[in-house]
Amino acid sequence: MFEQTTLDTCWIIPDPHDGSHSADGNWMTSRMTEPQAAAGNVAAPSLITIDRTSPVPLYFQLAQHFEAAIRSGALKVGSRLDNEVQLAERLGLSRPTVRAAFQYLSNKGLVVRKRGAGTLVANERIDRDVELTSLYDDLAAAGRSPDTKVIRNEVTHATAAVAAALQLPEPAMVVSLERIRLADGEPIALMHNFLPTGLVHLSIDMLEQHGLYELLRASGIRLGSATQRMCAKNASAAEARILHENRGAALLTMERIAYDETGRPLEFAQHLYRASRYAFTTSLSRVDATATLPVAR
Fold first, then answer.
1. Measured torsion, CA atoms of residues 146, 110, 234, 208, in degrees rounded to the nearest 10
2. 8 A C-beta contact, residue 104 and residue 47
3. Which of 17, 56, 144, 269 could serve as a FRET partner for 223 with CA atoms 20 to 30 Å apart?
4. Phi and psi dihedrals of 120, rounded to 5?
5. DSSP assignment string, 20-74
6. Are 77 and 95 found together in one domain?
7. For the chain, how many structural domains are there in total?
8. Do 137 and 42 fall into the same domain?
9. In Å, how far are 43, 124, 126 from 279, measured between CA atoms?
């Protein structure tokens, strides 16, 4: 039987029998070496201490231990953490407490939770500055390996929303693109893009090997400005399946209209990003309030 004390400690040392006791009464579980991590075995930090007298919530104490181990490299990318039941039993915590700790780690992009695979240490979340650049260019600049899977590349009738965004008369035909953007083999975004027909020739091979904005530049098309709107939504079953997320997971949405240097709209984009793997950063500056104040007469 588990003996509860004020300060609960879980030593993680090599032991083939999951859930056995050591001589001093502490719980033991198997420790994972780097070769085992590739095989998908369970990993954990070397020591987990829970202080029940602390005002710090129990879930946050547990999450901090895993966060420190992940950031220090003690837990490698792809390492699988103990499941909720096992960890709750070892530390004498409730399953909701352990679940809250894992959710905290997931929200910070430190782990991903996959059905059938458990909770895995994730690649570092991609943080993108909000600029008039493509995701492909940003991934390459960040040292990641961008890949693209083209789902659709066809000419189709524009919907009313697409025609309005591109300032096209109805009915109008547009080039419709649907692609999955991956970083280091992991899906990051589901992208829908619409362009006026006759603007540029785009083959599937070209779209798989290059970013859209790179192809536009290569065709002599220069982007001058864009308007962009970002929101959030929960993943549908189809979106979750494509992006390797759970149904209902948080997604970032982005709508962008890009213009050339004369102000003509060239592209209407509707993108979905995994909030667990992706973030936008915006730089702000203070406006001098005195510059807009009326002069007293």
1. 10
2. no
3. 144
4. -115, 145
5. -B-TTS-B------HHHHHHT-EE--SEEEEETTSSS-HHHHHHHHHHHHHHHTS
6. yes
7. 2
8. no
9. 27, 11, 6
Pick from 254, 246, 247, 248: nearest CA to 227 = 254
Confidence at 15, pLDDT banded by 50, 70, 90: very low
pTM of the model: 0.57
Q: pLDDT per residue over 250-292, tens digit each?
A: 999 999 999 998 899 999 999 999 988 777 676 666 766 554 5
Read out DSSP for 191-256? EEEEEETTS----HHHHHHS-HHHHHHHTT--EEEEEEEEEEEEPPHHHHHHHT--TT-EEEEEEE
Question: Which residue type, as a one-letter code, is found at position 51?
Answer: D
In this structure, the answer to whether residues 131 and 251 fall within a common structural domain is: yes
Q: Which of 255, 195, 199 is nearest to 227 (CA)?
A: 255
Residue 71 C-alpha from the chain's centroid: 17
